[in-house]
Inverse folding.
């Protein structure tokens, strides 16, 4: 292979993240080494080629040796991936290299002709998700959370509880504490055998984060397409991924778009999220990705673009009434839940979900009246008590029960605080399930 490698020794430009040179026969996303540091082609304009250098360009001279490797990033796939933690280049963080078939990362999404409408429930055990915002196999959905919220703990809980064959974790910009948290949590739960992780920590160069989603999704495609397995991909944190995109684009003197993000942000994110798929053979890739918000700013370019691509979102919120983090029923939405609730779950699921959220909304109105000094009716007082119980027993992220138990709990709360008429669920359903 080395006889065919293209080697150059004259750089025309150097920024803090990229180098440029004149070269022929180079392909987009091809890997190269620059002065011994791994780099990747990010722009080709005629014979002018720009490479992003993952470790930065400090002390790289203009006569540095540039060797093109004639292939994009690669990952060895196979059963040996399971139970291991890898870096952004697909190399084991600890232990020996794995054996397997080398595959290119970052390929196209599955052809629409090979896709099937998602129809399989993915239960997480978290009632704020399973009851109100049910996730379906092949769905792509983000977690929107403030940076101080325990989203990594939630993702780990989902990984341990989700009814899937394989979990693929892609960690971008993790602290070492977060990395060790995931590793120890999976190890202590005895779940490492079904988990594959690709991790970039804060000790690693930020630009390396750009490799992590492609590595994670290449592994996911192996298990879903080759092995017909149900795969859940957890990505955290997509905001830090976007920050790495901005570093490269800004150093290439590209005109930034909204919030200093590159103009290609939408397509960069879509390339990742569109890998979610339900296959006719039974395999599937479901993507659950954390997008951290800046002081809850949903209009920032990253969550804004994400919302156009994905099929809903899950919001984490601190509930002052119970002192816990809940999945906010008002700002969360799963656009595919109607494909499974009442079909793959119990018949009363859709009506229980709608009634509970409506009664929770009545409690929010009652709280506003209270804060503004108005007298509360008996119904208002009962709705406030219901909301507190509903948050504690069903919306809090530490709730871990099966869906049928979630539904039974909701019926118990209905009967505790309201009459059948106030709950307003179809009589045939009420007669069957009222506690």
């Amino acid at each position: 292979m080395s006889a065919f490698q293209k080697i150059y020794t004259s750089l025309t430009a150097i920024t803090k993240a990229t180098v440029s040179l004149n070269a022929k026969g180079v392909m987009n996303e091809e890997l190269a080494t620059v002065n011994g540091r791994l780099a990747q082609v990010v722009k080709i304009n005629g014979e002018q080629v720009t490479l992003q250098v993952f470790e930065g360009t400090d002390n790289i001279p203009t006569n540095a040796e540039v060797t093109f490797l004639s292939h994009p990033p690669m990952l060895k796939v196979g059963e040996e991936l399971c139970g291991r933690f890898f870096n952004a280049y697909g190399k084991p963080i600890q232990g020996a290299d794995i054996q397997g078939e080398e595959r290119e990362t970052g390929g196209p999404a599955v052809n629409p002709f090979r896709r099937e409408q998602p129809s399989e429930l993915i239960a997480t055990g978290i009632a704020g998700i399973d009851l109100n915002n049910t996730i379906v196999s092949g769905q792509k959905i983000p977690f929107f959370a403030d940076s101080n919220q325990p989203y990594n703990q939630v993702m780990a809980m989902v990984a341990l509880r989700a009814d899937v064959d394989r979990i693929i974790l892609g960690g971008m910009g993790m602290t070492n504490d977060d990395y060790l948290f995931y590793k120890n949590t999976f190890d202590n739960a005895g779940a490492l055998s079904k988990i594959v992780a690709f991790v970039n920590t804060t000790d690693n160069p930020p630009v390396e984060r750009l490799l992590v989603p492609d590595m994670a999704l290449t592994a996911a495609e192996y298990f879903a397409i080759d092995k017909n397995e149900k795969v859940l991909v957890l990505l955290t944190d997509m905001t830090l991924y976007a920050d790495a995109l901005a570093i490269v684009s800004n150093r290439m003197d590209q005109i930034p778009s909204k919030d200093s993000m590159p103009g290609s942000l939408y397509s960069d994110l879509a390339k990742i999220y569109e890998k979610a798929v339900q296959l006719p053979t039974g395999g599937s890739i479901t993507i659950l990705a954390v997008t951290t918000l800046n002081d809850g700013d949903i209009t920032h370019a990253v969550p804004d673009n994400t919302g156009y691509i994905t099929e809903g979102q899950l919001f984490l919120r601190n509930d002052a009434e119970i002192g816990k983090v809940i999945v906010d029923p008002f700002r969360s939405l799963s656009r595919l839940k109607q494909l499974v609730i009442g079909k793959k779950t119990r018949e009363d699921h859709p009506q229980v979900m709608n009634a509970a959220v409506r009664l929770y909304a009545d409690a929010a109105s009652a709280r506003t009246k209270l804060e503004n000094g108005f007298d509360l009716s008996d119904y208002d007082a009962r709705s406030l008590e219901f909301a507190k119980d509903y948050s504690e027993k069903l919306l809090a992220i530490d709730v871990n029960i099966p869906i049928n138990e979630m539904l039974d709990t909701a019926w118990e709360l209905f009967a505790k605080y309201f009459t059948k008429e106030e709950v307003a669920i179809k009589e045939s359903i009420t007669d069957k399930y009222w506690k």
About this structure: The chain has a mean pLDDT of 92. The radius of gyration is 24 Å. Residues 74-339 form a domain with the Rossmann fold fold (CATH 3.40.50.12240). The chain is about 35% helix and 25% strand.
